[in-house]
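ARCHIVE CARD
CATEGORY: sequence design from structure
SOURCE FIELD: tokenized fold
FIELD CONTENT:
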């Protein structure tokens, strides 16, 4: 019966945000300080009015911004309590692309509703979240246990792809 319930996706939770995997166990810890893997931070959101002439009607978009440093190459996830647009700018000013097959709509039995994965190298990244609701948003950087990074001939020039085991989440 339990196996059938599991296969049908109807397994009851032991409790919301309880027994989370090691990667996201910090989600329930006290938020604050700098954005580092495994510790949530609370960001204040702001309204950005969109001029009516751009859309034909007035609109205001809520957003939040922060920056963080990466010290180890690896795959990292941005975890959020609800859906938002995630824009991540690399140290060289390029917009990062999320790993397409790793856009995750959260983790079951948790208050994490969205996670997106990015392969990151050491440096400072600028994060902008938009389409937000409410005056604040909790966000957590999560170090994954493995990643897929392109080989490079020169910094920033993609070469042949290779599966690479990363140290970020180990």
């Amino acid at each position: 019966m339990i196996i059938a319930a599991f296969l049908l996706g109807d397994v009851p939770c032991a409790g919301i945000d309880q027994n989370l995997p090691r990667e996201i166990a910090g989600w329930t810890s006290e938020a604050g300080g700098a954005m580092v893997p495994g510790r949530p931070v609370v960001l204040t959101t702001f309204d950005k009015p969109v001029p009516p002439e751009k859309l034909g009607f007035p609109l205001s978009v809520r957003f939040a911004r922060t920056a963080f440093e990466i010290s180890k190459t690896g795959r990292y996830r941005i975890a959020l309590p609800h859906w938002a647009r995630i824009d991540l700018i690399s140290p060289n000013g390029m917009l990062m692309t999320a790993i397409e097959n790793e856009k995750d709509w959260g983790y079951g039995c948790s208050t994490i509703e969205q996670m997106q994965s990015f392969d990151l190298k050491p440096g400072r990244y600028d994060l902008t979240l938009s389409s937000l609701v409410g005056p604040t948003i909790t966000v957590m950087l999560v170090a994954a246990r493995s990643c897929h990074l392109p080989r490079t001939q020169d910094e920033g020039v993609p070469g042949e792809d290779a599966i690479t085991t990363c140290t970020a989440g180990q």
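CARD ANNOTATION: The first helix runs from residue 2 to 7. The helical segments are 2-7, 52-55.
SHELF: design records, drawer C
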